[in-house]
Amino acid sequence: MRFLAIVVLILLSSRCEAGTLAGGAAAVDITPLRLPVSMTGSFQDRQATGVHDRLHARSLVLDDGETRIAIVICDSCLIPRDIFDKAKQSASKRTGIPTSQILTAATHTHTAPTVLKAAQCTPDPQYLEYLTKQIAEAVVVANDRVRPVEVGWGVVAVPDEVSNRRWFIKPEAMKANPFGRTDDQVRMNPPRGTGVLIRPAGPTDPDVTFLNVRSADGRPVSLLANYGLHYVGGIAPGQLSADYFGAFARHIATRFDADKSFVGIMSNGASGDVNNYQFPNARPASAPFERMNAVAAKVADHIQHENKGIRFSDNELIQMSEREIKLSVRRPRQLELERARQLLENAADPLRLTIDELYAQESIRLDASRPSVRLKLQTIAIGDLAIVAVPCEVFAEIGLEIKRRSPFKTTFIIELANGYNGYLPTPKQHDLGGYETWRSGWSYLERDASTIITETTLEMLKAISHNK
User: In this structure, what DSSP letter does residue 443 have?
Assistant: First the structure.
């Protein structure tokens, strides 16, 4: 009993005084310990033989005296739920933060190690163990650094770096999809700067939202930003890189003249149908790594300017909710399965499948999968700033709808959070077809999934808004 009493006293003493914000941040290296390593982000396996810039799990812990939460953003293309769940369990045991109050997400850099068997890419089991350990460590280190802080947030538009990548195009430029059909109405990433373009099939969200955390005496602690930009790319072959997400972390630190303890974080917004290309007027080719640094610098500049007018507070209520939902999986029909089996039987090289053969493989995998999946959704409120976490590649129009209907003054969406459940098109976008809707391990949720997720997250936001 005496030991238990001592533990309780220690835990109570580690909490912050009610009504006073506290926070801490950390960046923990998740670069693989050995090379070469498979990289996710392509239909066929690519081997990384070098490291251009280190990969990190960047974490932020906040506490209002009653509720302590952690947010961890990882330099990875996508991370499945089982890895995140194991990392959360480990972190929770070591910090006391409930797993339901830990948000984890991937950035979607396409030049990070494979962590989920997808397409023709296979993960290294040793890296999966290391990644899980380091994600947990990021929470632990940030938690150890908790001290009195104040927070402020803002929104600034950067419209010229985001483009919707799904386009209505002229019939002569439309191709058959991998299932042998010609009924798609839109095409992803059509030829840029050509006369085949008609109009984009959806909007973009130009806004960068940011949460700035500084110590009680004004020293920078961390800045969490959010932008609906899939990734930038333009990275030299065979190189691991955190893409513009990592470059942003470096640029924002210099903008605030921060010391080495500062942690800049860029999370990915609703960007499942958005990229950095310019379609009607294609920009000239860039040298490797040039574009990712240019975009990161521009976003950091805009935040630096907008930050001058924001209000800081050391007394904001923190709330977090979590809910699990079940969604159906789209399954192939019998005729589609027969075609798929025939394609794979006739494959010239099973280790280097063509696009049609690859989707045939995906059809067979999905036919053998469970008929439904369970997804984890989260919402966070920090004063009148709200965060919605979804484990999908969310289309921009979905994020815009959640922002518009949110009961909070400022809301942003972190995608690829707490797991990976593929693309999330709207029912209308499903009708239009195109890459993001093609049934596969990266696009399999039921047609109405976006409607269910949108309404559920709005219910969650409404529930926590009542406590404001």
Answer: B
